[in-house]
Amino acid sequence: MTSTLFVPQFGVRVTTHDVTATQAIVSVTGLAQNASAGSVDTRARITLLNAKGRSIAQQTTIVQAVPAGATADFRLDFTVAKPDLWSPSSPNRYTAKVELLDASRVLDAETVLFGVRNISMTGQKGLLVNGQPMKLRGANLHTDLGGLGGAAIPEAELRRLRIVKAAGFNAIRTSHNPQSATFLDACDQLGLLVIAELYDVWSEHKRADDYAPLFDSTWQHDVKRVIDRDANRPSIIMWSTENELGIRSRSPLQDVYGKPLADYLQQLDPTRPVTQGSAMGHALGLRLPDDSPEWSYLGVASLHYLKQTDDGFEHIHDAHPDEPLYIGETWGSQLYDFTKTVNDNGWVIGEFAWTGMDYLGEAGIGLPQSLPTGTQSGGSFGAKYPVFNSYCGDIDLIGQPKPQLAWRKVVWGDSQLEVGVERPTPAGYEQSIALWSYYDELPSWTWNVPAKQAMRVRAYTPGDRVVLKLNNVVVGEVALTEADKMVATFSVPYAPGTLVATAYKGRQAIASQRLTTVGAPARLKFDVEEGRLGQDVGSLAHILVSVVDATGHDVPDAVVKVNFALTGPATLAAVSSANPHNVDSFRQPHRYTYHGKALAIVRSIAGNGVVQLTASADGLRSVAVNL
Q1: Averaged over 124-150, what is the pLDDT?
Q2: Residues 108 and 214 in one domain
Q3: Looking at the whole model, is its pTM more than 0.85?
Q4: What keywords sit in the KW lines (predicted)?
Q5: 337 burial class (0-12, 13-18, 19+ CB within 10 angstroms)?
């Protein structure tokens, strides 16, 4: 901005109305701010451009007498024929370009991206996206980027959200604070639906150093800044005012802040409903009375860890038939039950796994426990040092799938068969899971165990029968009923070779999967996920290193120390693995692999030359790549 008349930051708001496949109304509201000492007149020109950058509509309006030191608003409405709608499968976006003119001279210009879409949520029809029914396959995501920490970097945010969407998720809950603009840019681009959450605390502490002392004096300012920044985003479908603040003995905070927050959000943005994380108090076994005020001011209800087998489930919809509901957090150990609750009830619009990816903190809540046979785990909350990450995600800290994701893909209908082999435990012990944890298993038939040791194999399938063969000999057959929740479990005496699982529906084979014993670690292999390092200073490249055998097959459980060396105008931003116990610094140029893999993140710096990354390990052939 060089003119005294300009469009202020977040001074353009785009809303869409009456959206159909044949046309949509696009309303663009702008602000003109006058920093001069006198009143001025101007013209505002608004141009709509499609995804290819081609102008599809343009209008101009007079903005008269913008007062000195103040702002004036203006609005223009456009009818867009046959709009390219934004949706999870087709995240089409338009650009609104707003220019302030003095005669023919452009004084200032601002552009915003937006999407044309129609989102509705009701207790009768559930969630409709552009008129089509959809369920939220959601992931809770914290803000950190693993080894990069709390930074918000475009390539890293885009990478993790691509991984999340490729895993089958279509929605994100930003647990439990506003995410960066960079993160939300990626959601808009990729077509992820977002519940944008504002607070993990209000005025009552959860931790001594949290936001609570500032809340009373700043919440209105902070909420307005968030809405002003993010209201144009097609990805955001709801605003959430908090996380689990009403579950603590029916905290009076709900009565003090719940309605004012919801009312203020609706005032700032009447186009989206307001929700709260576990507002209805299901967590910890609490229930919300039918006459509680939350039912009147929230557009969408949320209950954490809710299943249709819970006492009182049916009463919720009977008492509040117009209110849609989503399950804001779910346990990986019971994911079948949560998904069935969503699928069986039209008014339950979705579920959000806790969590989509592992994150730093809440150490070890997802770790299985090795306990005496027959002992039930009570969960691993508060695991001892050196555990440092949550380990409760469907995806690990470096972006690799974890065992519960295999089950989820089958339950969601994205796969007909997945196979995992449980890591063996000492005699007299077994793996035990609860709540956020899941079994430590790998899609591998390469194990350093004595011959004939019993190995527990799980086959996940919607089929009604699974046949398991080891080296062409049938070693098990399991008939599945609904009570098995799409999991067939086998005990197989270990012998190297090839394990083949075949799933059937009736007499028809619907899928087959094989696991073959691989050779010893022989060399390292690189996978440069972005293809190359961008030329802009600060660009990132993520390079996955894998331990492979002489024929190039991954060695799934290899643990080797990998040393990284870098030449050229770049630096190692982070080196990490998914190991929840490895507290080595992310800034050191080496890492022990976990499940045979580690991740190096390279950042470009100023200078000319070729950037080359080399990885080496004792006894293995090294690998190098020019980035």
Answers
A1: 97
A2: no
A3: yes
A4: Glycosidase, Hydrolase
A5: middle
Phi, psi of 294 (to 5 degrees): -55, -35
pLDDT over threshold 70, residue 580: yes
**Which is nearest to 142 in space by CA: 305, 331, 333, 354?**
354
Is residue 190 located within the same domain as residue 329?
A: yes
In sequence order, what are the residues at sequence separation of 6 or more whose Cβ sits closer than 8 angstroms to the Cβ of residue 316? 280, 301, 303, 325
Mean pLDDT score of the chain, rounded to an integer?
94
Contact 430, 404 (CB under 8 A): no
Eight-class DSSP state of 70? S
Q: Determine what percent of the chain falls in helix, strand and coil, rounding each to the nearest 5.
A: 15, 40, 45
How many domains does the chain contain in total? 4
Residues 358, 391 contacting (CB under 8 angstroms)? yes
Cα(596)–Cα(619) distance, rounded to whole angstroms?
15
Express each pLDDT in 370-387 by its tens digit.
999 988 877 767 789 999
Rounded-to-integer distance, Cα 442 and Cα 435, Å: 20
Enclosing domain of residue 537? 523-626
Residue with tokens 């908090």: 242
What Rg value do the Cα atoms of the chain yield, rounded? 27
Cα separation of 353 and 343, whole Å?
15
The pLDDT tens digits for 191-214 are: 999 999 999 999 988 889 999 999
Three-state SS at 449: coil
Question: In terms of C-beta distances under 8 Å and separation of at least 24 residues, what long-range contacts does 280-286 make, across chains too?
Answer: 280/246, 280/316, 280/325, 281/246, 281/247, 281/250, 282/306, 282/310, 283/244, 283/247, 283/329, 284/247, 286/247, 286/250
Of the listed ranges 29-43, 286-300, 349-363, 469-483, the one predicted with least confidence = 286-300
Q: Are residues 106 and 153 in the same domain?
A: no
Tell me, yes or no, whether 219 lies in a domain.
yes
Q: Which residues, 6 or more positions from 239, have their beta carbon under 8 angstroms from its beta carbon?
A: 195, 196, 198, 227, 265, 269, 272, 273, 274, 275
pLDDT in tens, 445-471: 999 999 999 999 999 999 999 999 999
Q: What is the DSSP string of 23-46?
A: EEEEEEEEEEEE-SSS-EEEEEEE
541-578 confidence digits (pLDDT tens): 999 999 999 999 999 999 999 999 999 999 999 999 99
The helix/strand/coil state of 371 is strand
- Measured torsion, CA atoms of residues 265, 268, 273, 274, in degrees rounded to the nearest 10: -10
613 shares a domain with 565: yes
Residues 260, 407, single domain; the answer is: no
Q: Clarify whether residues 306 and 284 are in a common domain.
A: yes
Q: What is the DSSP string of 96-131?
A: EEEEEEETTEEEEEEEEEE----EEEETTTEEEETT
Q: What angle do CA 598, 601, 602 make, to 5 degrees?
A: 140
Residue 82 lies in a domain: yes
Helix axes 212-230, 259-268, angle to 10 degrees: 20
Given this model, what pLDDT does residue 294 score? 81
pLDDT range class, residue 284, cuts 50, 70, 90: very low
Same domain membership, residue 101 and residue 22: yes
Q: 508 by DSSP, 3-state: which?
A: strand
Lookup result for tokens 């609005």? 75
Between 257 and 288, the more confident residue is: 257
How many whole angstroms separate alpha carbon 201 and alpha carbon 622? 49
Does some domain include residue 295? yes
Tell me the CA distances in angstroms from 112 to 11, 14, 95, 230, 486, one per residue in order. 10, 8, 6, 11, 46
pLDDT at 71 over 70: yes
